[in-house]
């Protein structure tokens, strides 16, 4: 399907709403029925009827049609955060005694679900280095139900071979789930490689303006129906009509925002890589990235987020460098209009900082919509201070 069609037309039946160009925010909790038969059908198939907005809602419906098409999937569910998309996709597919294989250090709230919640219900998780397919083979047990992936991750950008993992999983009836927040469907389409469920934090690039939280899950109608009925409705974690509308608005400009950020990121990276105070730079499309070949094979692009390892000997030095930057906000998240910086040292107390540990000197950078030259000159003066 043509991306211009998806973003501008698909799902938008304007004759239903006064030919308004922008779709309405259908701000209602419930829907009325003209006949018993219609009411009965809605009760029986809530996944395909407008009954109550904890389930389906017309504004959310427009959005989910577009998100499914962007991913080349049969269907999509939209959640009120990426974390709830993770939670519901996992919870719908495990029971006591089951086993999960996850790449090591997935998104923090996936880790907390695996380690703090699921352990109480007898579900065990094995963490592996996902850069080697052998590690998946070795970790598989008869009770393995899910392989959980995140490619690339958002600090060190290790990637997994989606085609190889999904081939292995399919042969054993194991469900594969991938967190595709870094790439979005513009740069990577996990279903093309046979992955069952693709999820994203819509809070990042899809929303794109740091003003809304959202989560997306795409896959087959059958798998999503189960997740909708067992998890989304029970946890009440569907997106609200207004937030769905904000994501719809963000989607209109998604490709051009990513294109702009991609170009700017390359310019900033080019400058930082050559700087004597920077020991290393990690970015999936960098010529020194150890998995560059695989990145090129399964990703169309990368943008915005990369990590530098700075030559610093103290916690204080990193803090001074960070706050010398005038145009980067110190904040979590990414994918919006504003450039961000998140040093690992920021989460450590000064006594725990150890410069011999590379991770402690890692600084994650996100490039927003600003002019790259504007950002480069900011780095120039802040690196001077370092
Ligand atoms: C932010 C993020 C999430 C969680 O999304 P929320 O919308 O914040 O709940 C999941 N995965 C990755 C990679 C993220 O960056």
TrEMBL record:
Keyword Membrane: no
Tagged with keyword Ligase: no
Keyword entries, A-Z: Lyase, Pyridoxal phosphate
GO biological process terms held by the UniProt record: transsulfuration
PROSITE patterns cross-referenced by the UniProt entry: CYS_MET_METAB_PP
Cofactor needs: pyridoxal 5'-phosphate
Pfam families associated with the record: Cys_Met_Meta_PP
Similarity remark: Belongs to the trans-sulfuration enzymes family.
InterPro entries, per database record: Cys/Met-Metab_PyrdxlP-dep_enz, Cys_met_metab_PP, PyrdxlP-dep_Trfase, PyrdxlP-dep_Trfase_major, PyrdxlP-dep_Trfase_small
Modified residues (N6-(pyridoxal phosphate)lysine): 204
GO molecular function: carbon-sulfur lyase activity; pyridoxal phosphate binding
A GO cellular-component term linked to this record: cytoplasm
Gene3D superfamilies to which the protein is assigned, alphabetical: Aspartate Aminotransferase, domain 1, Type I PLP-dependent aspartate aminotransferase-like (Major domain)
Name this polypeptide is given: Cystathionine beta-lyase/cystathionine gamma-synthase
């Amino acid at each position: 399907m043509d991306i211009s069609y998806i973003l501008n037309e698909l799902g938008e039946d304007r004759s239903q709403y006064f030919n308004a160009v922008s779709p309405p925010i259908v701000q209602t909790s419930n829907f009325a029925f003209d006949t018993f038969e219609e009411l009965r059908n809605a009760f029986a198939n809530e996944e395909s009827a407008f009954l109550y907005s904890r389930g389906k809602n017309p504004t959310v419906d427009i959005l989910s049609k577009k998100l499914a098409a962007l991913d080349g999937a049969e269907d999509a569910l939209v959640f009120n955060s990426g974390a709830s998309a993770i939670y519901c996709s996992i919870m719908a597919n495990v029971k006591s005694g089951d086993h999960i294989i996850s790449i090591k250090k997935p998104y923090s709230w996936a880790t907390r679900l695996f380690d703090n919640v699921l352990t109480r219900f007898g579900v065990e998780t094995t963490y592996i280095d996902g850069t080697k397919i052998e590690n998946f083979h070795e970790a598989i047990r008869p009770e393995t139900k899910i392989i959980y992936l995140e490619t690339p991750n958002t600090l060190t950008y290790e990637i997994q071979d989606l085609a190889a993992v999904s081939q292995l999983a399919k042969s054993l009836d194991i469900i594969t789930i991938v967190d595709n927040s870094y790439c979005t469907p513009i740069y990577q389409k996990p279903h093309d490689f046979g992955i069952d469920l693709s999820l994203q934090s819509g809070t990042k690039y899809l929303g794109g303006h740091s003003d809304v939280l959202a989560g997306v899950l795409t896959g087959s109608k059958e798998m999503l129906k189960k997740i909708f009925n067992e998890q989304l409705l029970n946890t009440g974690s569907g997106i609200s009509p207004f937030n769905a509308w904000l994501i719809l608005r963000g989607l209109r400009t998604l490709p051009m925002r990513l294109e702009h950020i991609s170009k700017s990121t390359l310019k900033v990276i080019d400058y930082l890589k050559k700087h004597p105070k920077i020991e290393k730079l990690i970015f999936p499309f960098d010529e020194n990235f150890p998995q560059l070949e695989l990145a090129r094979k399964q990703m169309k692009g990368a943008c915005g987020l990369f990590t530098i390892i700075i030559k610093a000997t103290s916690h204080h030095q990193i803090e001074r460098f960070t706050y010398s930057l005038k145009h980067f906000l110190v904040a979590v998240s990414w994918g919006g209009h504003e450039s961000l910086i998140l040093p690992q040292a920021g989460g450590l107390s000064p006594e725990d900082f150890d410069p011999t540990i590379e991770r402690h000197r890692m600084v994650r950078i996100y490039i927003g919509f600003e002019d790259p030259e504007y950002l480069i000159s900011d780095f120039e003066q802040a690196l001077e201070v370092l």
